[in-house]
Design a protein that fits this description.
It contains three helices and nine strands, in the order H-E-E-H-E-E-E-E-E-E-H-E. The protein is α+β, with helices and mostly antiparallel strands and 161 residues long. The strands form two sheets. It has a seven-stranded mixed beta sheet. A two-stranded antiparallel ribbon has the order 4-7. The longest helix has 24 residues.
Length: 161
């Protein structure tokens, strides 16, 4: 009798576990698309003349810098993300979970362009390093560095909202 109760108990436990597993498999999670949050404006400058004005979202906290533009499906032509670090050092990025092809513009502590990584491929986890130490990194839609004719030595100016 005890053996029968034990077998029935074990059977009931497995039945409950397997019925719960089916419910979990069929559950889908809906997420909201991350929307751009304009936090300031950035002006790209060549010899003091404005080449381009961009609406920017800042990535300043550790979480914002780790996440960046991940999981976003699009970004308007006049939008960008600016990573702000406390000091100038070597930085490397990758495109994990990033669906937008990007150009990365690396700026030194004096807001001068020091290097680029152009046409980064979405979802590619290959390292995209700065060639020299940088303090600010601007992510824009791919092809913009060439379209705007940006060059090392060009500058940026920032205004916050």
């Amino acid at each position: 009798m005890k053996k029968l109760k034990r077998i029935l108990s074990v059977g009931a436990i497995f039945g409950i576990l397997f019925s719960c597993a089916d419910e979990v498999k069929n559950t889908s999670i809906e997420t909201d698309e991350i929307e751009f949050a304009k936090e300031g404006e950035l002006f790209l400058l060549k010899a003091g003349d404005t080449l381009q004005k961009l609406d920017i979202e800042f990535a300043e906290t550790s979480y914002e810098q780790q996440t960046g533009l991940m999981y976003r499906k699009s970004m308007q032509e006049n939008q960008a993300m600016l990573f702000v670090y406390p000091e100038e050092t070597m930085h490397s990025f990758y495109m994990k979970n990033t669906y937008i092809p990007l150009d990365l513009v690396f700026f030194g502590k004096d807001s001068t362009i020091v290097s680029f990584q152009e046409n980064a491929t979405p979802l590619d986890e290959t390292s995209l390093p700065s060639k020299v130490p940088a303090q600010f990194i601007l992510e824009v839609n791919a092809g913009k560095v060439e379209q705007w004719n940006l060059a090392e030595g060009d500058k940026m100016a920032i205004s916050r909202n």
